[in-house]
Design brief:
With 176 residues, this protein is an alpha+beta fold. The chain has two domains: 94 residues, Jelly Rolls (Sandwich); 69 residues, no CATH class. It has a six-stranded antiparallel beta sheet, covered by helices on one side. α1 packs antiparallel against α2 and α2 packs across α3.
């Protein structure tokens, strides 16, 4: 396997490292997935993602079906489709995602990885502390047009995130 480039955004909870570059109207995300790593299911209401395995073997969820993809193979995820990726092999997998339009995907992934490194989220993308609940609500509010988690149900997210995000903003002002 080729060595990973320097300066990757590391998410230790999900066992991934990513780099980002913009190309035309798309964001190119190269991700290295550790054995056992991967992301939880989510939806991009208006974003299409084209995934390709560059090296190794990865599995992709699109809708309800997992599909294994070796180097040169991939999957197209249409807007509004529940999806995820994971690595069930014994070796690191390198995948590439072309996200169109790019929206705030890079910012979201960078902020979520920082929360992971700080121990604020667990493997199920759930907060680990009461303060992390507010931080996740704030993150979800900032990026809610771009990404929606599969759980809890979307209605619950719509009802709970705005008041929690407002509370997070008030607390941030009090501590500033």
């Amino acid at each position: 396997m080729e060595p990973e480039p320097p300066g990757l955004v590391e998410d230790p909870v999900f066992g991934i490292r990513s780099s980002f570059r913009r190309e035309g109207g798309s964001l190119i995300v190269d991700t290295w997935i550790d054995p056992g790593g991967g992301v939880t299911a989510h939806v991009h209401p208006e974003m299409q993602e084209r995934f390709e395995t560059i090296e190794g073997t990865a599995q992709f969820l699109a809708g309800r079906k997992w599909q294994e993809a070796s180097a040169g193979e991939g999957v197209l995820v249409s807007p509004g489709t529940r999806h995820a990726f994971r690595n069930r092999s014994g070796d690191v997998a390198h995948i590439r995602c072309v996200a169109t339009p790019p929206s705030t995907l890079e910012e979201f992934l960078t902020e979520a990885a920082a929360m992971s490194r700080a121990g604020r989220i667990n493997r199920f993308a759930l907060p680990t502390t009461p303060a992390a609940v507010l931080e996740i609500a704030s993150l979800a509010r900032r990026h809610g047009e771009m990404v929606v988690m599969s759980s809890p149900p979307r209605l619950v997210q719509k009802l709970m995130i705005p008041p929690l995000a407002r509370l997070a903003a008030r607390r941030a002002k009090q501590h500033a």
